[in-house]
Design goal:
With 82 residues, this protein is mainly α. It folds into 2 domains: 34 residues; 31 residues. The chain has 3 helices and no strands.
Length: 82
């Protein structure tokens, strides 16, 4: 015959342990995703300057617009186009 016990609170500990386990797994996943995403973020102004340089090199913007936008990004400092 099957072993039958009088109920007890063991099931509550097991359910709590299972919830804690899945909460830990979820937390680890969130932390890993955020850490990996942070590694792929570009440094703001330096990436913006690189994009600006690329647009200028492709001829999408003229000298005046290039100088104006570069001055905005660098606070007025930095070399202009050669």
């Amino acid at each position: 015959m099957w072993y039958v016990h009088d109920g007890g609170w063991g099931w509550l500990w097991m359910a709590g342990g299972m919830l804690a386990f899945w909460a830990l797994v979820g937390t680890v996943i969130v932390v890993l995703v955020r850490a990996l995403a942070a590694d792929h973020r570009d440094a703001g102004p330096s990436r913006a300057l690189a994009i600006l340089d690329e647009r200028y090199a492709r001829g999408e913007i003229d000298d005046e617009e290039y100088r104006h936008r570069r001055a905005q990004l660098t606070g007025g400092a930095g070399p202009g186009p050669a």
